[in-house]
Write a structure and sequence with these properties.
Elements: E1 2-5, E2 8-11, H1 22-52, E3 81-87, H2 95-106, E4 115-121, H3 126-148, H4 156-162, H5 170-190, H6 201-206, E5 222-224, E6 253-258, H7 269-284, E7 289-294, E8 298-299, H8 304-312, E9 321-325, E10 329-331, H9 344-357, E11 367-370, H10 397-406, H11 430-440, E12 444-447, E13 455-458, H12 463-474, H13 479-501, H14 513-535, H15 540-555, H16 557-569, H17 586-593, H18 607-630, H19 637-649, H20 651-659, H21 668-688
Parallel strand pairs: 3-4, 3-7, 4-6, 9-12, 10-13
Antiparallel strand pairs: 1-2, 5-6, 7-11, 8-13, 9-11
Helix pairs in contact: 1-13, 2-3, 3-5, 7-10, 12-16, 13-16, 13-18, 13-19, 14-15, 18-19, 18-21
Length: 689
């Protein structure tokens, strides 16, 4: 239409459409999505922090008075004690490690006729059996030496390393120990046994079971009791009713067990091995008290069983008290504990808080149980009932026959073992799962943390072994919780940094009041944990390394644990159980003692953390460029703070990727793949932003 004004006509154009820049709409949508992701990550972390405060509400410290024990029971009235030591691969868990653990508990300040040590060799290796034959002979000298001289450090390797005390016969004992260690280590190195080391026909016959068809995953049960003195004895490690040490004292029972296995039947990993120990010990000694130990967790205090009796025999204690858990404390940790291997927060600080709530959690080692907690009622096999009285020698034909029967791989068919009886199946973390189900049945537990550690174990000294171990523990978490933990770590380590690369501000400006809330939460959470470490006697450097490992395991162990959980959930075969290697190379130990991170192997576990390191470094440098270009820091300050914090945490990674030349450096393959992944993430994000 037209209109005439002053002789001139003008045309008014009414637009039928408008042009909206799609890039701006897309950017707004991306900003909203990123903000929601960050909010979810913050919510998960806030939830984890809030729930962890329960451990701080009612921490419990306990103290026992061993000198008062005699008022409740004479030594002759002490209950029998069965000790379970679990080992598997002799090349990942050196037999001498298991030998030292067994010798340390055999020399407890406890009536030897009431003490039995059962060693489960889940690898079915004749090398491990040979090591315990040697241990049985050495025990006849070591036990009286410890008790005569009142030695406190009763793990031979730890004792001779410490040189705390020296007596006239010490040099001779040390020489015999070193000779034993050399024989065992040479056998492991060669993969075969020199039969010149065997002292009688009975020992030679024991190895005849390792035929050509004998494999670690397919073999009949082997139960061996070696007797170092009676050449006529065909089966025997140490039987307390006959064997005596060099001072004519009765020796504890020492029994080697390799359970029967078949490739057609599930063996249920460590839980299956522990259930076999429960059954075999039930037929031989059937002690009412059981101690479970990992192969590397040796006794550091010979009076530990007496501490346990102070709880079990105290009439004031709850009759439903089922088990006493001691903390996992590790020796050989370097000065600053670069891998957070001491796990101070989990195994000591939070454990005492858990004790004040619902009782301590069973952590798989260093725990004393009442045998009755594993049985709901009478069993189909009378010899396995907890009240069954063993009145025959453990070396009798009847007892040995029954022991072999219950150790066979077919025994558990159509039974309730692993579901309602014994250690529970269905997960790689049989310890936490069993603990949970026992508490559901009303059993109580307590946490005992004496000044002198009851047990000391080996901690991994390379990052790969540490992450593998943490991955297995991560599978304890439910699928949903584990997914949320992975989500939080990944979004805080990647999303703000990728947004920074795209010049997108996703946090409040430094002048915004909400910024103060972020800073308060950040400093408050880290400050609380730092204070707890300091109050527990740790250093700031150890706390810093612990928080670094929290991020690393969130990026690697948790994500791989989540993948394994998902595969298992949908019925796909998973990676299986990986034993943490206890084998230590000299150069690796040297680097560890110097506080240098150990990588070395091209493991996929390293990819997420190295990719995060690359992303954070590049985004921080790009952020600096943008600040100089735009003369504006306020909008990007929080993102640059996160990236800068990550860079400081990732310094060992940058060092391993670029600066180092030793064997422990980051493999070039991992570095190149990480750079490629970081570049791919940037390209994908640039489309979204």
């Amino acid at each position: 239409m037209g209109d005439s004004t002053g002789g001139k006509s003008s045309t008014i154009h009414v637009p039928l459409h408008i042009r909206v820049p799609l890039s701006r709409t897309s950017a707004n949508r991306s900003f909203t999505i990123v903000s929601l992701l960050i909010l979810m990550a913050d919510a998960v972390l806030a939830f984890m922090w809030a729930t962890s405060q329960a451990f701080r509400m009612c921490p419990v410290g306990r103290r026992v008075f061993i000198e008062h024990l005699e008022h409740y029971a004479k030594e002759s009235d002490y209950p029998r004690l069965d000790v379970f030591v679990c080992t598997s691969d002799p090349y990942k868990e050196p037999p001498m490690c298991a030998v030292n653990t067994a010798l340390s508990v055999m020399s407890y300040d406890y009536p030897t006729e009431k003490l039995s040590v059962y060693v489960s060799d889940d690898g079915g290796s004749k090398l491990t059996l040979f090591a315990f034959m040697e241990a049985a002979r050495f025990a006849a000298l070591w036990l009286p030496y410890c008790k005569k001289n009142k030695i406190v450090e009763r793990c031979p390797e730890a004792y001779f390393r410490s040189n705390l005390s020296w007596f006239p016969e010490t040099d001779q004992i040390k020489m015999m120990y070193e000779n034993m260690r050399d024989r065992v280590e040479k056998a492991v190195q060669k993969g075969s046994i020199c039969y010149d080391y065997l002292t009688n026909e009975g020992e030679g016959e024991a190895f005849s079971r390792w035929t050509d068809g004998f494999t670690p995953q397919n073999h009949p049960p082997v139960i061996q009791l070696h007797d170092a003195y009676l050449a006529t004895l065909k089966a025997g490690l140490l039987e307390s009713s006959k064997d005596k040490d060099n001072a004519s004292h009765t020796m504890p029972n020492l029994v080697y067990i390799s359970r029967g296995k078949s490739t057609t039947l599930p063996h249920h990993f460590k839980a299956g091995a522990l259930n076999v120990l429960l059954r075999v010990s039930g037929t031989m000694s059937n002690a009412p008290v059981i101690l479970t130990l990992d192969t590397d967790m040796y006794s550091n205090d010979p009076q530990t069983p007496l501490r346990v009796l102070c709880y079990l025999l105290d009439p004031a204690m709850d009759p439903k008290l089922g088990y006493i858990q001691f903390p996992q404390i590790f020796h050989g940790i370097n000065e600053n504990d670069i891998y957070g291997g001491q796990l101070k927060l989990e195994f000591q600080i939070e454990a005492s808080g858990m004790d004040g709530l619902v009782g301590s959690t069973y952590t798989g080692t260093g725990c004393f149980f009442r045998r009755g907690v594993f049985f709901g009622g009478p069993l189909e096999t009378p010899e396995l009932n907890q009240d069954h009285l063993v009145n025959k020698s453990i070396n009798s034909k009847e007892v040995l026959a029954m022991a072999h029967h219950v150790a066979d791989c077919n025994f558990e068919k159509q039974t309730k073992w692993g579901t309602e009886i014994g250690f529970r199946y269905g997960t790689l973390v049989e310890d936490f799962y069993t603990d949970y189900l026992l508490k559901c049945k009303g059993w109580k537990s307590i946490f005992c943390n004496p000044k002198r550690p009851a047990f000391l174990g080996n901690s991994p000294i390379n990052l790969h072994s540490t992450l593998n171990q943490l991955m297995r523990w991560a599978m304890l978490c439910s699928l949903r919780l584990l997914a949320n933990m992975v989500h939080s770590n990944y979004h805080l380590c990647f999303v703000p940094q990728i947004a920074l690369l795209n010049c997108a501000s996703i946090f409040p400006k430094a002048s915004d009041p909400w910024f103060l809330l972020y800073i308060f939460l950040f400093l408050g959470a880290y400050g609380q944990e730092c204070l707890e470490f300091m109050l527990a006697g740790e250093t700031i450097q150890r706390w810093w390394n612990n928080q670094r490992m929290w991020t690393i395991r969130g990026l690697s162990s948790f994500i791989f644990g989540l993948v394994e959980c998902l595969l298992k959930f949908i019925g796909i075969s998973t990676f299986g159980f990986n034993v943490t290697s206890k084998v230590i190379e000299e150069e690796q130990r040297k680097r560890y003692n110097q506080g240098i991170f150990e990588f070395g192997v091209p493991s996929p576990l390293f990819l997420p953390m190295t990719t995060a390191a690359v992303i954070n470094l590049v985004s921080f440098l790009w952020g600096i460029v943008q600040v100089f270009k735009q003369r504006e820091l306020e909008g990007l300050f929080t993102q640059m703070l996160l990236a800068g914090f990550a860079i400081v945490n990732c310094w060992p990674l940058y060092e391993a990727m670029v600066l180092r030349t030793d064997e422990g450096k980051m493999p070039v393959k991992i570095t190149l793949i990480s750079i490629t992944l970081a570049w791919a993430l940037y390209l994908v994000s640039s489309i979204a932003f």
